[in-house]
Design a protein that fits this description.
There is one protein chain. With 307 residues, the protein is mainly alpha-helical. It has one domain. It is built from 14 helices and no strands. Helix 3 packs parallel to helix 9, helix 8 packs antiparallel against helix 9 and helix 8 packs parallel to helix 12. The protein is globular.
């Protein structure tokens, strides 16, 4: 129930925020209505472990998966609405935190990473980095699905830890966005005119098309892409180290790609990694059970009673 309650708390928090700061949120009635609807649906959801889960009915497996993984779907909507709420607290100083991020990058790296990496751009590098950026969907969605499918019983411990960790990592980022509003370098017109445009035939246009339709202005620090990806990796590590290694490879590439593609500042990635670690720590704590132990062969989840 920890995950349900955490999602409900965040949903209620944003509803309260847009009501209190409605003069600074252009679409606050729509956001409020959506959040009230989500709260109503969550209240009406059957409790976890309810008898219907054990009855043999058509589509029961799919319904059970949706019941336990629905918070991940909500993250899509919560992320998209950041564009409307990110400056709610600072209507007279929009994106005020950007200058701090540029200063931090110059302090840590000597100059802006987008400028330092610009001489290294090229067709092959551009395609590879955008492919890593696109792998975010494989890591987050694929990792959660693999954790579910790899469970000996549903929902198994690996799934519980993974889904709780990744959603917690997302929410840690989302909570911070209105307090530290900032955009990525790709929205800095003066900076972008000095950099070489990316070239690519496959992944560059795919990523650009996705961002043209779903990019959010202001959800920058911490990087929720990095946070969620590493939360999946760390969530899988205990029960499925092989899958965690594969996802970790792509998460490493994604972390570099977030900076190379100019969508994030360097410190966004570092903060996202910390958010992912914190999300996993909270997810592991919330999902802890003295009766859970990883099987010796590293296969699917199992539960044994420890003396």
């Amino acid at each position: 129930m920890f995950l349900d309650r955490m999602v409900m708390a965040y949903t209620a928090w944003i509803a309260l925020l847009v009501v209190l700061l409605r003069e600074s949120v252009s679409k606050w009635p729509t956001i409020l209505a959506f959040h009230l609807f989500v709260l109503a649906v969550m209240i009406a959801l059957p409790r976890r472990g309810a008898p219907w889960e054990t009855r043999k009915r058509r589509f029961r497996g799919g319904l059970r998966f949706f019941r336990y993984s629905y918070p991940l779907l909500l993250m899509v909507f919560f992320f998209e609405e950041v564009h409307q709420t990110v400056n709610a607290l600072w209507p007279n100083a929009p994106y005020w935190f950007e200058n701090q991020l540029y200063a931090a990058d110059r302090f840590l790296f000597g100059d802006l990473p987008s400028i330092l990496l610009n001489p290294s751009t090229g067709l092959l590098q551009d395609e590879l980095m955008h492919a890593f950026y696109f792998s975010y969907y494989f890591i987050v969605i694929g990792g959660v699905v693999l954790a579910w499918l790899g469970s000996g019983s549903h929902p198994g411990p690996a799934f519980q830890i993974t889904i709780t960790s990744v959603v917690t990592a997302f929410l840690l980022c989302f909570v911070g966005y209105p307090f530290l509003p900032a955009r990525g370098p790709w929205e800095n017109g003066a900076l972008m005119t000095t950099l070489t445009p990316f070239d690519g035939r496959v992944f560059v246009p795919i990523v650009e098309a996705i961002l043209d339709r779903g990019a959010v202005s202001g959800g920058c620090f911490p990087s929720s892409h990095v946070a969620a990806s590493w939360a999946v990796v760390l969530g899988l590590a205990r029960f499925h180290p092989g899958w965690a290694t594969v996802c970790g490879f792509f998460a490493s590439g994604l972390s570099l790609a977030c900076v190379y593609t100019r969508y994030h500042h360097g410190v966004d990635v570092l903060a996202g990694l910390l958010a992912g670690i914190a999300g996993t720590a909270i997810g592991s704590w919330a999902s802890r059970s003295p009766s859970v132990e990883r099987p010796a062969d590293g296969g699917g989840d199992s539960e044994v009673v420890l003396s």
